[in-house]
Amino acid sequence: MARTSVSSGAAPRVAPDGAVAAIAESRPAGESMRSGAKPTSLTANLGRLRLGRYSGIFLIVALVVIFGSWIPQTFLTATTVQAIAQNEAITIIVSLSLMAALAAGVFDLSIGQNVGLGAVVCISLVSTYHWNPVAACVATILMCGAIGGLNALLIVVVGIDSFIATLGVGSALLAAAEFLTNDQFVGPTPASFQIFAEWQPLGIPVLIIYALVLALAAWYVLEHTPVGRRLYATGANADAARLAGIATKRYVVGALILTGLGVGVAAVLLSAEIGSVSAQVGNSYLLAPFAACFLAATQIKPGRYNVGGLLVALFLLGIGVKGLSLVTGAVWIPDLFNGVALILAVGLAVILQRRTQRRSKRQAISAEIGGSNPME
């Protein structure tokens, strides 16, 4: 796995399996002055940094203004806002789950088909085999977590590249879902099961409440606990983290299992929301989470996957998709928009990394020149 080093005081540079994550870090206080830079240059750099890290919020405002002016009768409604929130809730949970693996420095390309198989199994247990809904939910979550464990076995123990291992597992999961459904829809689930997703306290879809609670928990763990810091360190530079005493393999295994468990939660909620699924239902939950996670690495805390940036990215994607769908009515809008967003996010990451590398080289040269004694 290709990774970059972790500099003191800088955000970890996460680059799972050679993918380029966004790198945009601020300088320590006073460094520009020590290297001879002008104060105005420091101010300009900080201004550009703020603009870049909050650009997603500015784009959200811009999209709201554009679509609100273009189709105000359909876009500027409470129904549209509620639909965007409800549509993004499951994707938020899947993306948060994926972030655990990415933060540890590995890909999980099986997440979409893990969601699909989980939904097929959950609905089958409830509607076909008449399991207790709670037991069916627990069994589904544990199954998805076990699939995360299988990914960990292939990557950590066997040593297969995470891209290849999880891609293969995802294909096998799709085949399993097709076998279980015989290419037919399974369901519907009883109304007593659908209440898990249809409840709207104070008019707020309960799915978005679930998603935000999980986002808050993920934010706390990643930003304010030793586990989160060690996870970031593992993904940024496994060798350095290992030398510092971190059991990096254990953190990778834990991250992949956690990704599977989170995907299981998403599968259960998806089952309760739509009640009937086909084997291909998971196809919608691969591209969007990856696009959101890579875009998140350019927002709020540039240079690493962060929950705040993820929420900004997902609602940016959700508003864009919903607005264009209302304008055109085309069914291909989500795939096109998410695909373009993924390309732009990774492209921006590459640009930011190159700029940071050039700036670091200039600072090193300036420091060397400034520290040399011309009389020697």
UniProtKB/TrEMBL annotation:
Top-level division of the source organism's lineage: Bacteria
Molecular functions per Gene Ontology: transmembrane transporter activity
Mode of membrane association: Multi-pass membrane protein
Subcellular location: Cell membrane
Residue intervals passing through the bilayer: 51-71, 83-107, 114-132, 138-158, 163-182, 202-222, 251-272, 284-300, 307-325, 331-352
GO cellular component, one term: plasma membrane
Keywords, ordered alphabetically: Cell inner membrane, Cell membrane, Membrane, Transmembrane, Transmembrane helix, Transport
Protein name (database record): ABC transporter permease
Originating species: Lacisediminihabitans profunda
